[in-house]
Amino acid sequence: MKKIILFLLLFLAAIGIDYEINSISVIHLSNVNALFLLVAILLLSLYIIPVIFLLSCYKKYFSTPIYLLSISLVFGCFIPGWMAAYGNETAKFVTDFFIQGSSSLNAWINALTTSLTEEILKGACGIGVIYLLGKRNLSDVFIIGTCVGLGFQIVEDISYIVNQASESMKEIFPQTMLRISGALSSHWAYTGLFVLGVFCLRNKNCGISSKRKYLWVLSPIVLHFLWNSPLNEWMLGDIPMVSALLTTVTLLLIIQTVHYFLQIEKDHKTVKV
Asked: Is 152 contained in some domain?
């Protein structure tokens, strides 16, 4: 079974590498604009570097092997992204075909289908990595999901910036800042929670309450849906109240989950002593 999973992951990643590289190579920019594009992409390090630092702290405390983070990140970069692109495009075509003349309803439905498509695909990738590596520790499961989500997030952000460069260079840096501002509680958090919840649901003897399991599974989908929905466009003057609230809730869930792992680790050490 592991050989099949390894083959599928490598095969899908190989497709993803070609897809992502070709999506960048097809745009034609002058040397100056190409330099601006490169600078915009490098600006993503404003959130990538702090996240990697936090992951290294997590790795050190929970004794997580570095290969686990690396493999999850690479597969997250090149597997769910291109699949989600086709999935979202298909779902939008079906939605627009059956619901015509109602742009508002379409926006809500597209927000839901996008959230479901992306979370399921990222989750499947994360679960595949978990079973490939034979991991059963909850802290390892969570970090695998987090790294898969981070990989997806980085590639998605680059894709948005590249697409913006192909349309209008005037908006490339505003688009980049928008991606950075939304990175605080984005795919890395959603996928970490979702994969953890799915794993626990599949392992009934893991000692986790049903309430916590379903919270981990459903909260990323709901939060992702609300973030993509027209509701997130609501502002209180110049203050983005909805996005701030969603970010706060997401981070609280992450903090609560990591605290739970710390408590398990503490109890384990106490019992061990």
From this structure: yes
* In a domain? residue 248: yes
Please say if the pLDDT value at position 270 is more than 60. no
Tens digit of each residue's pLDDT (9 = 90 or more) over 150-204: 999 999 999 999 999 988 889 999 999 999 999 999 999 999 999 999 999 998 7
pLDDT score at 268: 63
Task: Provide the residue range defining the domain that includes 227.
Answer: 1-20+37-267
Entry pTM = 0.93
| DSSP state string for 84-124 | HHHHHHHHHHHHHHHS-S-HHHHHHHHHHHHHHHHHHHHHH
Measured between alpha carbons, how far is residue 181 from residues 20, 36, 43, 47, 234 in Å? Answer: 23, 19, 12, 9, 17
Number of structural domains the chain divides into: 1
Residue 251 CB neighbours (<10 A): 13
Instruction: Kindly state whether residue 29 falls inside one of the protein's structural domains.
Output: no
Give the integer Cα–Cα distance in Å for 47 and 196.
23
User: In this structure, is residue 108 part of a structural domain?
Assistant: yes
3-class secondary structure, 236 = strand
